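Quick one, T. Sequence first:
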Amino acid sequence: MRVRYSALIGLPVCEQEYDEVIGLVSGILVSVDASRVLGFFVRTLSLFSGGHLFLSTSDIVHLGAKVRVRDVEALAPPEELIRLQERLDDPRTILGQSMVTDTGRQLGVCKDVQMDTAEFRIEWLFPRKWFREGTPIHQSSVLKVTDDDIVVRDPLIREPASTVETLLPVMEGLGTQALS
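Structure tokens:
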């Protein structure tokens, strides 16, 4: 199944065996280098221990109308997850970053991503410029992600045709002229 991040915001998070809501999805953590979602931030609903916890994608049992997790203990404060500290401190967030082509054309700001729910791989990026949505960009078109920009291959520039593809129509035309 494929889902956009914007559709996940506000989704309730519940334990697998119980239907009690633990919290609501409030953010995302992406591994830019692997183009993969590492997990989601969950805003807890408890009055006394309210705050943001982190939910790893490996702890998600089912993703549908609710996000079901194995156990409430799977959620932890982000600052306690030592292996994620480098990624949490990385300024390359994908969402909110400027998107530009390799030719320097501004596409807008990345406002959404689409992922597959089997492996949580990022498949599409959705730019927005001013109040208009831009053309979605496939993840394979991303050339690099810097602290400031997501640089993508310009979709308006076509790859040059190979010499064989260019000469084939010319050679076919010569062959028909020789026969007449």
